Amino acid sequence: MELPNASRTRCAAAEAEAALASLGDAFASVAQSHGAVGKDGGIGVWIGTSGWQYRHWKGAFYPRELPLGRWLEVYGTRFATVEVNNAFYRLPEAATFERWAASTPEDFVFALKASRYVTHVRRLSEPQEPVHRLLERAEHLGGKLGPILVQLPATLPVATERLEAVLRAFPSTVRVALEPRHASWFEGPVRAVLERYDAALCLTDLGGPRTPLWRTAEWGYLRFHEGKGIPVPCYERRALDEWAERIVDLWPEDADVFVFFNNDGRSCAPRDARLFAAALERVGRSHSRVPGAHETPLNMTERTVGPGPVDS
Fold it and tell me: Could you give the C-alpha distances from 161 to 97, 175, 193, in angstroms and in order?
């Protein structure tokens, strides 16, 4: 006999919770065998970009003759972390995660943006199944899996109970960062929930800070969206220096802080990542590897080509 819709939903939720528990054990085993990200190497601040396959980086960040299939390999020699945005639009297959892991050095870390199915379609409701599906595939990164970024739609007002359900859906061994884009989220109850689950409020910059400077976890997450430098959307040195000082004020030296530059236009992101590393050095803070000045020229002929990143 066919089960009613409500019963089928409860069964699916129960199955997802059981599968998540199993995945939690697997992630705990990985964490134990590899150590906490960043702690064993003393890196501190992990610097990278939001994606690595932008067409307008060809001839600037990447040699013009380099095949697209080798871009991640080269990126991994210059940076030790990347934020994968395309998982938000279309969840890659397990084989893709395996290929990414095989194409990067042992110390490399992937941050993943959670599927929009969780945030924009379900709007944080019933998160168990989509979270399970994400982690079931992402586990193929092995010890290279870093934080998961949950970016909320600007039209979603505060929903503390749904937020807590999402955080519960992730194993405690997986780091989760929250990027709200509605002002109602920046209140005390949300901060308390994030602190309870050691989840980071994603600090964001868009011509200046766009979030309160909360430290809600033992680790941190910061995204640079667009600066006020010349050319746009690059960042000025002063803005980068101010953020380096904020990191020093918020987190101790041994804390993992993930920093990603999303201002890919004109190849600003790789250059600004390098300049931010220099800003951190000026305040005595260690960081992951960054490319050299000769590897980060700006693309002054075109800001963007096509709708955005190719399939990364």
Answer: 31, 19, 9
